[in-house]
Amino acid sequence: MNMEKVLIKTDEYNGRYVAMKSFDDPTVVGAGDDPATSLKDAASKGYDDPVLLYVPEKEAVLIY
């Protein structure tokens, strides 16, 4: 059984940081090329505590 949850369903944010309302509501409220810009964008819209994540480029291999 696959428990994967897709939060971002568009290629628009590939390679960028995204601020979302929450994990339960993945509405994008900010985006930027770095975390600070994404968080500032969200804060300017009234979201002071969003969920921040990085959306990798398509076909990118990431090793953590």
Can you describe this structure in just a few lines?
By secondary structure, the chain is an alpha+beta fold.
Question: Secondary-structure blueprint of this entry?
Answer:
Elements (H helix, E strand, L loop, with lengths): L15 E5 L7 E5 L2 H10 L6 E5 L9
Antiparallel strand pairs: 1-2, 1-3
Question: What characteristics describe this protein?
Answer:
1 helix; 64 residues; alpha+beta; 23% strand; globular
Radius of gyration: 12 Å
What's the overall average pLDDT, rounded? Answer: 91
Q: In what order do the strands lie side by side in the largest sheet?
A: 2-1-3
Which segments are poorly predicted (pLDDT under 50) over 5 or more consecutive residues? none
Strand content: 15-25%
How many helices does DSSP assign? 1
Shape: globular
Distance between the termini: 24 Å
Reading the helices and strands in chain order gives: EEHE
Helix content: 10-25%
Largest sheet: 3 strands, antiparallel
Total number of strands: 3
Structural class given helices, strands, pairing? alpha+beta
